[in-house]
Amino acid sequence: MSLYASLYSGVSGLTAYSSSLGTISDNIANVNTVGYKETRSQFSTLVTESKSTTSYSPGGVQSLPQSLISRQGLLQSSASATDLSIDGSGFFVVGETPDEVFANSSISFTRAGSFTPDDEGYLKNTAGLYLLGFPIDENGNIPVNREVGSLDPINVSGLTGTAEATTEVTVRANLQSSLTPSVQAATYDATVPATSIASGSVSADFQRNVQVFDEQGGTHTVTIAALKQDPTQVGQAVNQWFVEIFVEPATDITPGVGLHNGQIATGTLAFNSDGTIDHSNTSAALLNAVPISWTNGATQSDIAFDLGTDATNDGFTQFDSLSTLISSSVNGAVFGNVTGVNINDEGIVTALFDNGLTREVYQLPIATFQNPDGLNRRQGNSYTRSDQSGTFALQLAGTGGAGFVAPSTLEASTVDLGNEFTQLITTQRAYAASTRIITTADEMLNELNNIKR
């Protein structure tokens, strides 16, 4: 009964082109949706198998949606620092709530990067999905495993008023090699208050201050002082200096065993004949981390004083020029109120504070898939993994096939409005043609019924 088959073939056309109209309508409706990916209708024939070579049995057509998720949309400039897009492959990782413990089943992926802070400071996009990232510790490192369970919702407002204790002080300075040893070097003894620099009894040949921070954000002054040794005295040598590191005022700390007047480390600083630092003859107390017990109730600090690499001139040196401090750097800080965030192309989120300090707090992962076009679509212009997409890998920007983060930009919809209107016209015409199949088959069936009359 090829007439009935033709009738059903026309019905399949109506169904297929109705479905196609739905995808076109969705594309047109989302022409201005950030990060939206166009969906196309692909048509496939339905064949009714027939072994006869003298007759044909029509089957019809079916419409299959094809998501073009892997297509890159145009990146458009934005004035917001938290508007993000990805230049290349990959997706932002998002969660539906900031309070859950994230697992593979509780995250989704999106290219819609219009993120803004909510009333609690969490970054979420217009669909209400929260941006996730790896937290960066005080040493600038992210979790080694880079698993979903290590992700946190990004919130920088919680850093207000926090402090980071100093753990390292780096000093570059020169001590004048031709300096005549002081007469006080003959009787110098760091362990005796009457003959030490920290007590004020001996004047140093070189003395400079640096500011360090404790766990509570307290600021303390640490002094590094040096006195050139007199090789004519017993126990003293050429190219060597007495060094004391102490805190002022001394009441800020509780001195360790054998120390006094705020001293935290004492010893000998030695140099090679070429003016570079000599670690083998330098006291270990000056090269190792120094424990400091604060009297204000803050946790004990362990501060390493980097005086230079052995046999190089990247720290303390002894050349025949005036003793001077070349540079010094101290980690740790007291952070004020957060005034904004900055995100670079590597996905590193940096908090900006009102006292001019900055701190790296998160790094955004970029999720990559073997077949992104196979992802499952979800509400809010997001996606979840499927058997067709394969498993995902959390990459850092620019590695493992992932693209770079493009801050202050938004990815436009991939919909071509002109093409969609063209498809709309052709779909309408095809739908009308399918209705003609049905009416024609109906007329032929009616003629068949009239034979009996």
Describe the structure.
The chain is of the alpha+beta class and 453 residues long. 15% of the residues lie in helices and 32% in strands. The strands form 9 sheets. Strands 5, 6, 9, 10, 22, 23, 24, 26 and 27 form a 9-stranded antiparallel beta sheet that branches. It has 3 helices and 30 strands. It folds into 3 domains: 2-63 and 422-450, no CATH class; 75-155 and 363-411, no CATH class; 163-334, Tick-borne Encephalitis virus Glycoprotein, domain 1 (Sandwich).
What distinguishing features does this structure have?
453 residues; Tick-borne Encephalitis virus Glycoprotein, domain 1; 3 domains; 9-stranded antiparallel sheet; 5-stranded mixed sheet; 3 helices; 15% helix; rod-shaped
CATH architecture of the largest domain: Sandwich
Distance from N terminus to C terminus (CA atoms, Å) equals 21 Å
| Tally of strands | 30
Tally of separate helices: 3
CATH topology of the largest domain: Tick-borne Encephalitis virus Glycoprotein, domain 1
Question: Helical amount among residues, as a percent range?
Answer: 10-25%
Which CATH class of the largest domain is shown? Mainly Beta
How much of the sequence lies in strands comes to 25-35%
Count of folded domains = 3
> What coarse outline follows from CA principal-axis ratios?
rod-shaped
Class computed from helices, strands and strand pairing: alpha+beta
**Full CATH superfamily name of the largest domain:** Flagellar hook protein FlgE
Main sheet record: 9 strands, antiparallel
| Mean pLDDT across residues | 91
Low-confidence stretches: none
